[in-house]
Amino acid sequence: MTALDMPPQAAGPRSAPGNGLRRRALAWLAPRPQAQAWTLLAPGTVWMLGFFLVPVIVMCAYSVMPRGEYGGVDPGFTIEAYTRFLHPVYLTILERTFVLAVATTVLSALAGYPVAYTIARSGRWKSLLLFLVVLPFWTSFLVRTFAMIFLMRDTGLINSWLIAAGLRQEPIPMLYTPFSVLAGLVYGYLPFMVLPIYASLEKLDPALLEAAEVLGARPAARFRRVTLPLSAPGLIAGCLLVFIPSLGSYLTSDLLGGAKELLIGNLVQNQFSTARNWPFGSAASFILMIVVLAAVLVYLRLRPPDTVRGW
Amino acid sequence: MGASGIGKLPRWLVAFTAVCLFLMHLPVLVLIVFSFNASKFAVTWTGFTLAWYRRLLERDDILHALQASLIVGITATAIAVTLGTLIALALARHRFRGRTIYEGMMYVPIVTPEIVTGISLLVLFVFLRMPLGLATIIIAHVAFCVPFVVVVVVARLAGMDENLEEAAMTLGADEVTTFFRVTLPLLWPGILSAALLSFILSFDDFVITSLVAGSGSSTLPLVIYSMVRRNIEPSINAISALIVVATSVLLYVSDRMSRRNEPSHA
Fold it and tell me: How many CB pairs under 8 A join A and B?
């Protein structure tokens, strides 16, 4: 209570006189809320502009320049990289990526919704089950992808058990097929589907379901007309969170898919490692980014206005 | 969801969930179990051994990579948490022009595919003639960690009582003192979980790192990747098991610490 008797400046030991620079800076900032905010924002903003925005702009510039002989670019302007993308080979890659991302999203939704529904109503089991869903988030994606190889390769666990059990003579070729890439993506991104659906089911007011029951709706109707519509924001958010990384996936198809399962991500990487066509790689990368941002914009349009921020 | 328990759900639903959760963890569990298997060909159980773990210690490339990963992870986390927390404070505590747009823009790096971020940084570094190495890896890691830090810390700030800061100011503390004496201690659990997220994102990153690492410096994921690529031997299981266990311990510790620091009067 002695603080009340002292002049305000002396209340905190840190604001002792002698720290004139800090006092003058704070005095200058006090009447300037914009300057206060930008003082805090400046360092991070400079970093993000310099190492996120500027690189994307440079990459975009590289995509419209002629190809250099040993990688890199030559001065000049050309849209050859973009016209090259219209070749059927590359359109097939684009289509394959899109189909795979859609399939991953649909399978994750079909598996993730029931899981989220069960967790939301599991009572005292809830925190344990949630922990089990969150754990893979924190486990290295590379390690998890390697684990899939360990299970699915010809000499892997599944095949050797099938053969040992006498169910098969030959191993089933699972690895380096579209199946293994799809399985790897669903395995990798399923938690992204479960968590937002769970979050929206958790918020659902049980009184609404009771009301529907009192009014004579059967369980199936209650689900279809109350639960499902009210959890749609979570479902849509989950679809976005699975669809986006699937579109841009690189590691999964690189390790689990063969050369035939090339996706856009791998195409981009190839142009910088083996093919040494930087303008084309930059163009493919830029197209991938545009497609992803377009998907986000579609989501923002679909999203009901009352959705919680962040999802 | 009220008084409903797991017993009231249809059996098939519970069984389906159990199978899904089991499958989500089966591959990594199998990996860990077989890291103790004596057989080099790794698919039939021939006896318990720690040989694969011992072999890890003999490999200089793995130890060097671990060192590089720790240097990168700690440095990048320190920078990203500082920059990200300052941005979060501005977003949560200050009104400024363009705030909504700024907040929206923070999500752009999060949704951008890693391969795009990595390629664009590679192009920039080559354009600027910067030698690729630990420095470029750290720069790249900070760039992809900052937005995650912002999201986590903003969420924590949103749940904090602004009155405590106002009280400190009324009692005569200036902005800096208030920050160090009131805001920071309250914010600590949020900063800690942001730091953990940032460290794990950095420690696990393969795609971006592989593009901006150059030839001289390898982090742990790069070495693991080349091991997976070249030949599959049980040492990879051993190093994978160690990473999984280390991450789980880190998670557990941070969970305990943030609970202890939770303000009790909330």
Answer: 282
